[in-house]
Structures are given as structure tokens and as C-alpha cells.
Amino acid sequence: MTKTKTAAVILSAGLGTRMKSATPKVLHPLAGRPMLLHLLETLAPLGLEPLVVVVGDGMDDVAETAKPHPIAVQKPALGTGHAVLAARQTLADSGCDSGGDFGGDVLVLFGADPLITCETTTRLLAVRRQSPEPAVVVLGFEATDPGDYGRLILAGDGSLQAIVEARDATPEQRAITLCNSGVMAIDAKHLWRLLDRVGNDNAKGEYYLTDIIALAREDSLHCAVVEGDEAELLGIDSRADLACAEATVQARLRQAAMDGGATLLDPDSVTFCFDTHLGRDVTIGPNVHFGPGVSVGDGVEILPFCHIEGAEIAPGARIGPFARLRPGADIAEDVHIGNFVEIKNAAIEAGAKVNHLTYVGDARVGTKANVGAGTITCNYDGFEKHHTDIGAGAFIGSNVALVAPVKVGPGAIVGAGSVITKDVDADAIAITRAPQKETKGGAKRVKGRQSAKARKGKKKGGK
């Protein structure tokens, strides 16, 4: 992007108190992935070096998630300015210090602000490097409801004069709708000198990063604002915020799917995972959910109300409606998986059909085999999982139980209602149902007895 060096500090020490969760705030998922990883992926094309993630004391799970990026620990947590200072040594080791030769910028972001785009971040850095090369550039936005956001106070020339927290703002300042996102690009040669002068004379006794604006102005340094879109600068502090962010991420994923050649019949009802891969000319019906690890080939049709995760679907397959593909489902070309069918850790080979009310787990269904309604592979014996193998062209009748481990040979037929506990040879017919017994006139006699009983009951009630 540029020869100017850029380091980054991602503040991720928040506990998410308002979310009422044992999970650290930045590890709550969006589209199946921790929000921190969404941000790290967004920043990856910028080549930031180093990129330091600041965590709170004991937040080992956040540190593990952030690997391989270096970690700085903020102990104790004394505000955003203090959090950036916690990364000082790690940044200094790369030359980003007041006396070093880093000669670049430090980008400060928040792990709980995962929706910011690479384009917006690039614009922020570009303004930092353009004349008059402001010491600090703040990313702001026009808020629909400014509420408790800090207000950005501009000077007559459009430069940033101050950031005023909502609780400290005058009525005139509270009427300002240009708000602070918290994201900043800072000239590295000024950063530590400004942070070292930040005090904690406030109600919380914390060191606020926003105070560097006033300090920079005292030093006659220029500060600037870049405006971003409100939706992408949402900070996630509550479950309601998380839901709003999920809606934004899903809207982006749906648009990307349609731009990539997929048809979504009711886009707002389809939910994707961050890693869902769709081929061209895929058609997806309403109320389809994609979990992690799904790849869908060209020309696949997925009917309404399907739940798919950890599955590979080859071109030309037809899934659903009301089908569930669980991890390990490997669906080959032109396979039909029908309504109320569940596939788990099973290979369904080309042209096979599993169309109704069926469970296939830990199995292989051979090419052009047909599995009838109500069939199940009994793969679990209470202790271990076992494999079922159905050969090419085999026909499994309705309501069959295949007790694994068991093999049905190619071209074999298994009669409806059978419980198969032994291997079936190729081209054989296997039937285990009990012989049918018929009592001539039995139904008529039973109906007569029931009718007489009913009449007798009515007479007793009449008395």
C-alpha cells in the first residue's frame, strides 16, 4: 500500500460486563467466528508490522486466538490511553519509539469494533500522510442517535479541535452529531510524548486516549477527522449490539454470495458462516442456515429450511427441503438428499438418492444407490461408532435398520422393514421381516365387538 511503516495496536482487554458473559467480549462470534478474527482478517492486506493485541490480565483465551500476533498485557486496566502504553515495549522492539527510526504511524483500533472495512482504514492512513500531515487523525461518523458517544469538536478550518465526552459536553456540544469511533492513526514520533502527559483526573481515574487531541493542540500540532459509515463503526458492548453487528455481517455475506453468482430466493432469511463457499448458479431457498466449513459446487439447489455445516456438496446436487448435513457429509455430483434426511460423516456418491425421512451416519452410499424412506444406519452401539457400506446401485427399502458394521453389496436389494445385521452379497435380496399372518374375517368380527361395546355404553349412560 505504501512504503511508510505502519504498526497497529488492537485494544482487546474488555471483559464484556454489559454482555453478562463468561466469554471475553472480543471472542463473541459473528458469522461463526470471534469478532477479533474478523478485524484481524480485515487488517491483513495492510501489512501492519507489528500488530499488537492488548489483552487483560488472565485473558489467555484471547491471546491464543490472536496468535501469531504479539500480545501485550494491560495490568491493571486503567483506560484506553493506558492500554496503548501497555503495548509500548513491544512496539519499541520494532523501532516504534520516540527515539527510534520507525518513521511511521501507529493505528489504534478496538477488538470489539469488527465491522470497519479495509477501505476506511486505508483512507484514515492516507489522510495521516497527506499535507499538512496531522499528528493524529480520528475516525468519526455522523450518528443517528449520538447518545453517549464522544463528540468531535471541529475548528473553523475543519481541523479537529477536541473530543468531548458526552457526560462532559455542554448542551450545544451534545447537539453535535459528529461522533468519535475511537479509531485513530497517530504519527509515531508524537505518540509516546503525548501519552506520557495524559492524566487521570476524571471520575473513573483512568487514562483516556482521547486526551491526546487536546495535548496535541497545545503543542500546535494539527489533528484531523476522517468520516466513516455509522454501521461499520458500531462498537459492540451488549447482546443487542452483537445482534446488530451480526445483521451487518450477514448482509455483507449475502451480497457477496449474489455478486458471486448465487441466487438467494429470500436473502434476508439465509444465514451464512464466514467461510461459506458457493459456486456459480447455486440456488438457495428461504430459511437455509450455513454453519462452518461448507463448500457448495456449481449448479447446486438447496431447498428451504436446510441446516448445513462441515459439508462438501458437489456440482448438480439437490438438497432438501428440511435436510440436515452435519460435519463430514460428502455429497457427490447429482446426488438427491430429500426432506427430513440427516447425513453425518458419510460419503454419498454420484447419482445416489436419499430422499425421505432417513439418517445416514458413518457410512458410504455407492453410486446410484437408492435409500428408502425411514431407513437408518445404526452406527453407534453405546460405546463406539461403526461403518455402514452400501454398494453402487443397491436398493434399500423403506423402514430398514442397517446395524453397523455391515456391508450391502453392489446391486443388492434390501426389503422394506428389514433389520440387517449381516453383510449382504452383491445382487442378493435380503429380507428379515416376520412372515405375514392373515385371519380371515378377523377385522369384521373385531369391528362388530367394538360396535356392540359402544352401544352398550350408551345405554348405561342413558339410565
Q: Topology of this protein?
A:
Layout: E1 6-11, E2 29-30, E3 33-34, H1 35-43, E4 51-56, H2 60-66, E5 71-74, H3 80-86, H4 88-92, E6 105-110, H5 118-129, E7 136-142, E8 151-154, E9 160-164, H6 171-174, E10 178-187, H7 188-195, H8 211-218, E11 223-227, H9 239-259, E12 263-264, E13 277-278, E14 283-284, E15 289-290, E16 295-296, E17 301-302, E18 307-308, E19 312-313, E20 318-319, E21 324-325, E22 330-331, E23 336-339, E24 342-348, E25 353-356, E26 359-365, E27 370-371, E28 376-378, E29 388-390, E30 395-396, E31 401-403, E32 406-408, E33 413-414, E34 419-420, E35 429-430, H10 442-462
Parallel strand pairs: 1-4, 1-6, 4-5, 7-11, 12-14, 13-16, 14-17, 15-18, 16-19, 17-20, 18-21, 19-22, 20-23, 21-24, 22-24, 23-25, 24-26, 25-27, 26-29, 27-30, 28-31, 29-32, 30-33, 31-34, 33-35
Antiparallel strand pairs: 2-3, 6-10, 7-10, 8-9
What does this structure look like?
- A hairpin with a 2-residue loop joins strand 2 and strand 3 (33-34).
- The protein folds into two domains: 6-233, Spore Coat Polysaccharide Biosynthesis Protein SpsA, Chain A (Alpha-Beta Complex); 258-430, UDP N-Acetylglucosamine Acyltransferase, domain 1.
- Strands 13, 15, 16, 18, 19, 21, 22, 24, 26, 29 and 32 form an eleven-stranded parallel beta sheet that branches. It has a ten-stranded parallel beta sheet with strand order 12-14-17-20-23-25-27-30-33-35, covered by helices on one side. The chain has a seven-stranded mixed beta sheet with strand order 5-4-1-6-10-7-11, sandwiched between helices.
- The model has no long low-confidence stretch (mean pLDDT 93).
- It is built from ten helices and 35 strands.
- It is of the alpha/beta class and 463 residues long.
- Helix 7 (188-195) packs across helix 8 (211-218).
